[in-house]
Amino acid sequence: MDVAGTRELLDQHDIGCTCSLGLPRDVHLPFYPEKAEEFLKKAVDVTAGLGSTALSGAIYTNRGTLTGGPPSEEEMETVVRVLKRVAHHAASRDLQLGIEPVNRYESYLVNLAEQVGDILKRIDEPNMFAHLDTYHMNIEEKGFYEPIVGLGDKLKYIHLSESDRGTPGTGNVHWNDVFRGLRDIGYDGYLVMESFAAINKDIAGATAIWRDVVGNPETLIRDGLSFLRNKAAEYEIPT
């Protein structure tokens, strides 16, 4: 990645950035802890080089790597141990490190907000936070309000994604419950519209997007952002 060139373009156009990733297949954390730690520390350095303040996402897993069973305690101990060390490295670069639960078809390790809360307690580092995604919540959670409120001030980042990953406001996500929960915890973190208007082969494979879920990208930007900004204003959440 051309870190310096990307940073120059971001600065030129006055655009901020945050960074998010899932692990490559040959760096799946419980299987390859040393390689995963090395990869994540390099990712932290790239994040810092871009001028971002946070690295988040499915930083504990390769999306699509499944074992046919639930995670073992040994696997979770490995995740906690490695992420704690990566959190120390992130702190040395003045960065925050986030954990995003994803649905059961993408990972067997962390699917629920409650599980993220437990991992954060076990890691016990002040620069770690929870990252939710309404697309995954729509599959895994019983609802939207309680998981958000349950995380409270641990929640620092949220992907606002529709149930089909298309334009927010056109699917099955219960947006009033989402924004009511954010209001009730005094949320002041990033509100991120996540959809997929243009994807490469790796992203398509990781997210199982085999068809166009967006249509016209200009419509996504116009209608999706307008919908989310109106909801944030309705619930008095800063944007």
Task: Write the CATH homologous superfamily.
Answer: Divalent-metal-dependent TIM barrel enzymes
Gyration radius over CA: 17 Å
Please state the average pLDDT score: 95
Shape type: globular
Order of secondary-structure elements: HEHEHEHEHHEHEHH
**Strand pairing plus helix content: what structural class?**
alpha/beta
CATH topology term:
TIM Barrel
What is the helix fraction of residues, given as a range? 40-55%
Pick out the low-confidence regions: none
Q: CATH architecture, please?
A: Alpha-Beta Barrel
Instruction: Count up the helices.
Output: 9
The strand line-up of the biggest sheet is 1-2-3-4-5-6
Beta percentage is 5-15%
- Distance, first to last CA: 30 Å
- How does the major sheet shape up? 6 strands, parallel
Total domain units: 1
The first-level CATH class is given as Alpha Beta
By DSSP, the count of extended strands is: 6
